[in-house]
Amino acid sequence: MSETDRHGRPVPALVVRGVEVFPGLLDPAAQAALVAEIAAVMALAPPVQPETRFGRKMSVRMTSAGKYGWVSDRRGYRYETRHPSGVAWPPIPAPVLSLWHRVTGVDRAPDCCLVNLYREGARMGLHQDRDEADFGWPIVSVSLGDEARFRIGGLERGGPTDSLWLKSGDVLVMGGAARLVHHGIDRVRGGSSTLIEGGGRINLTLRVVD
Ligand SMILES: O=C(O)CCC(=O)C(=O)O
Ligand SMILES: [Fe+2]
Known about the structure:
CATH architecture: Sandwich
Largest sheet: 7 strands, antiparallel
Number of domains: 1
Bound molecules: 2-oxoglutaric acid, fe (ii) ion
CATH class: Mainly Beta
Distance between the termini: 34 Å
Number of strands: 13
Helix content: 10-25%
Radius of gyration: 16 Å
């Protein structure tokens, strides 16, 4: 199990380009509990395959919980207070919020829990998360289901990168000097987990938006 510091915060087993990695922070029971909570979110706010401004479909399916959800369509990408269907985003599930507070030590709650659903063949290109008002707040990222190769670069585009395989139950924190590092998902190893109904991987990305 994970070690904790004197504030009770888990100690990252690994730091890659400033990104804190907590491998296996969630045990199988905690993973299953989160997946059940996220299934309830997805029932109210079904994942959609977003389009870019240029009309290209992303391979990942997305939905959100919280005050804001991240959406992309022909009008571009932005945070919205409603799902494309018009319903408000469901609240961020309590166990997700407690995980945020546990790994960040931050009192403020996140505004957005982006749910990324990677089915067979889905990936996410190298990017920065920079649609938020204040980069002083960290980002927490949770992996559930199939393993995925996560790529981490630097603050500039086109620099050197490192990669690591993220497994179900792994948690990352991107904060401080690493808040704006480039990152993406090269590929997902299909069938490496049976956690997600219908197969694949779910990533939860928690952010303070405004
Ligand atoms: O799926 C992941 O692990 C990364 C997701 C991500 O970077 C994002 O949604 O901004
Ligand atoms: Fe990201």
